[in-house]
Every structure is written in structure tokens, then in C-alpha cells.
Amino acid sequence: MKLSYTGKTKDVYELEDGNYLLKFKDDVTGVDGVFDPGANTVGLTMEGAGRAGLRLTKFFFEILKQKGIPTHYIDADIEQATMTVKPAEVFGKGLEVICRYRAVGSFLRRYGLYAEEGQPLDAFVEVTLKDDGRQDPPISEDALDMLGILSKDEYQVLKSLTQQIGNVVKEELAKKGIELYDIKFEFGRVGEDKQIVLIDEISGGNMRAYKDGEYIEPLELEKMFL
Amino acid sequence: MKLSYTGKTKDVYELEDGNYLLKFKDDVTGVDGVFDPGANTVGLTMEGAGRAGLRLTKFFFEILKQKGIPTHYIDADIEQATMTVKPAEVFGKGLEVICRYRAVGSFLRRYGLYAEEGQPLDAFVEVTLKDDGRQDPPISEDALDMLGILSKDEYQVLKSLTQQIGNVVKEELAKKGIELYDIKFEFGRVGEDKQIVLIDEISGGNMRAYKDGEYIEPLELEKMFL
Predict the structure, then answer these.
(1) Which residues of chain B make contact with A91, given a CB cutoff of 8 A?
(2) Which of A77, A81, B156, B167 is deepest in the core (most CB within 10 A)?
């Protein structure tokens, strides 16, 4: 198997059968040694972070499978901290899709004139470009279409899947008394029919979760959850 | 008549018949004494800037009237540098609507990973919030609807009017060998039926125009044009 990509928190290997193996690393994003899921740099290494992220990802991807929501997931090996996935083509040079249930983070920084901190948002979906040098700018449906990144029909599929998956995660967290504030996903096209599916991971590092009004750190969330 | 608002480049008076009078000032937006139509501060005062802006505004608003495109315009007095308009309610605390024909400015700063400088854009419409403290953030159709600023139906009207008006300006400039790169508009709701109409002005300060590949300063544009 061949290393095909070294990411901030994962390495990607190409398998001989055409599938891919994601190796979850213990590196987490952050700034100056402080964990920050929204950061674009690796901030620190936390023992066990890779496996904890994979455990949660496996849990959610298997629930999505049961519900018939398409993902790139095939299987996972927790001991090895690896996940086998179908090959997927990303949109353009990569998009992040955010589903928001409460106004915090960049939403509040942009729309604070119209929204109060923590105000409920109804599974609001927004898309940002993965572009570290330009601070991951938000992009509209029209711009995605015009720039050839995502067609209008694909946007509707992406938005609908984002809300469906966000709601699944929200419900699962609610069973443990945890409230989901927001979550970010990545999607890609799989197979000859270019089906849009969830890719990458669903772990503590992708979401903001709160219990009794207190923010829960990703590793803490993974411990509480599983 | 009563001064009801002092803006950066215009003062607004309420008339006794319920209409409003806009007084175009010679102040133009910019930074450190350099003119910049995108700036949020008054940078300098230029003799005759108010009248020049009004002359161009009158020219375009009268063409729009002939074409049946709704605006708040009633009439203008060039000598006094005043324009009489119908009362309009802005969306939320104010929006700017941009129509782009070439990739320059903030579009390029955000989407430079996918667009080259000067690349043609097909009357691409985007909306930003008027919020100096938050650098006039871009906002999507979904967010405008969710935050109660503009309904989805209104968004479609706004987008269509923006493209119609942008195309009118583009054609008029083309008659003088001038190419429109982008232009920003403001809209409001007028009358009991809350009709969406163009408000504010259409002047050099609202657009980027080029002749033979050279950027034309607003006052220069107004001289070349009229």
C-alpha cells in the first residue's frame, strides 16, 4: 500500500483493490499548543486522539449506514487506528459544510449584528472553501456553481445530506444529555454515477458540543460518548 | 424639512409630503486621503463630487424608469445637488448587493483559488451586510431568510433586479467604450405592498469601470460619461 497524502490529522494510503486506508494520527489542530477544531494548523499531539476520533467516526458512520445515508465508509480497525473507505473525488480543492444549531463561532463573528450568542439556528447550512491562505472563505450556492465546483442540483443534495446527518448526530448526542451547537462535514463524489457521500470523519474535532451550558473538549466528548 | 440622517456621502431630509430629499455631499469614501469606493470611511472632500454623482444617478434612474424597472427616484435638482425620493424601508440594517462581470476586489480576495484576476463572471450577484465593524460580511440567501432580513421570494426579486440594472449600466457604459467590472446597489421596500425597488444612487463611487484595460476614477468616469 502506498502513502498518497499526508494530512494534518490523517495519512491516506492507496490500497491495491482501489480503496483507501485512512490512518488517524494523534495530532490535533490548534494554535500554540491549545486545541482548536477550527484551526488550520496542527497545534499539539495528544496520546490516543487518533483512536478516540476513529471510535466516534466508526460509531456514527455505522449508524448512517443503517439509515441508508451514503458515506465512503467500508470498515475500521480501532487497534490500528485505520479506516478503509471507498475512493472519493472532492469538490474543487475541497469544501467544508457546516450545520449550525446555535449561533457561535464564525457565524456570530459575521452575523453578530442580527444574532445573539447561542441563539437557536434551524440546522442552518453553510459552505466554506478549504483554503488556509484565504481563511476558508464562505461561498454561496451561486458562486459554487459559477466556479464549476458544485452544480445547483448537487448543492441541494449536499444541503439535504448535511441536515440529515447533522440531525442524526444531534439526536445521538441528546441521548447522553449533550447538545450539539454546530458540526462540520466533508463530502465527495463516489463511483461512476458520482453519488454525493459523506467522507472524512465525524469526531469531537468536527463539532462543538455542550453539556449543561459547558463546552466539552473533543477528547472528553469521545470519553463521555463511548 | 427635517434632517433625518447624516450619511458618509449624503444627508437625508424628510419632506412634508412624506417623501425624502437626498443631499449629495462632496465627501467621498476613502482611506488616508485616497479615494476608495469600497471604503467605510470618508477619506476626502472633492469639489463637485456630489453634483457629478447626482448627474450620473439621475441619468441612470431615468433610464430605469423608461424601462419600467422600479426605483425610489422622483426627481433631481442638479444645482442644489438634491434628489427627491419615495420613502423606502431598508432590509434589516442595510444590505449591499453586488453584480460582478469580472473577478476583481473582494471576489478575488475570497475566491482566488478558483478564479484569475479579471476573469469574466456572468452578472454574478452577491449580498453583503452593511456592518462596518464586521467588514461588511457576505451573506447567503438561506442566512438572509433565517435571520428575518429578506425572504426567499424577495431574494429572487432582488437578484433579478440586480442583474437587470447591472446589465443596463453595463450597456450604457459600453456605448462609450467603457467596460463595467462590478457595481454595487442598495434596495428597499416601498409602499404598502412592500415592492422591492432600487434606492440610493448609481454613480462612479458604486462601480469599477475600465477603459482600454485602465481603471477609471469615479470623477473621471462622470466627466467621460456625461
Answers:
(1) none
(2) A81
Q: Chain B partners of A147 at a C-beta cutoff of 8 Å? A: 111, 114-115
Is the ipTM here above 0.85? yes
Q: Is B125 in Cβ contact with A142 (below 8 Å)?
A: yes
- Amino acid identity of residue B167, one-letter, is N
For residue A118, is it left (φ>0), alpha (ψ between -120 and 50) or beta? Answer: left
Per-residue pLDDT of chain B (226 residues), as tens digits, is 899 989 888 999 999 999 999 999 998 777 777 777 667 777 778 888 899 999 999 999 999 999 999 999 999 999 999 999 999 999 999 999 999 999 999 999 999 999 999 999 999 999 999 999 999 999 999 999 999 999 999 999 999 999 999 999 999 999 999 999 999 999 999 999 999 999 999 999 899 999 998 999 988 998 898 7
Closest by alpha carbon to A164, among A141, A194, A187, A191? A187
With an 8 Å Cβ cutoff, is B140 touching chain A? yes
**Angle, helix A49-66 to helix A152-174, in steps of 10 degrees:** 110
**Entry pTM:** 0.91
d(CA B75, CA B82): 9
